[in-house]
Amino acid sequence: MMAEFKSRMDEIDTLTHAARRETMDYMAFSGPLDQDRFHRLITATQKLEEEKRGLFEAHVLGIRTLLGDEKGAEFFSRLRAHILSKKNSFQNR
């Protein structure tokens, strides 16, 4: 479950990065800009970001359902503590 999730998230990140790069390349073009094309580029990036959010939501809800209320709450409590400890260690540098 985790490997499949990470693989798809990595794929979406790669596609999103490419879409943003294409948008910036287009904006750097010296000729007149086609607003419709620009809109399509922005929309493509937004769709990828939306897909990523949906995938994340489905994943965490799936984990919580799989683990149940008690174990799910414990898992996410530990994950939260881990994330916060990493955030604090970076802030102290």
SSE order and pairing:
Layout: H1 2-27, H2 35-91
Structural commentary:
The chain has 93 residues and is an all-alpha fold. It contains two helices and no strands. It starts with a helix and ends with a helix.
How would you sum up this structure in a few lines?
This protein has about 90 residues and is mainly alpha-helical.
Low-pLDDT residue spans? none
Number of strands: 0
Biggest sheet architecture: none
Helix count, per DSSP?
2
Spatial gap, N to C terminus: 34 Å
Strand content: under 5%
Dominant shape = elongated
Alpha-carbon Rg, integer: 19 Å
Mean pLDDT: 94
Name some characteristics of this structure.
93 residues; mainly alpha; 2 helices
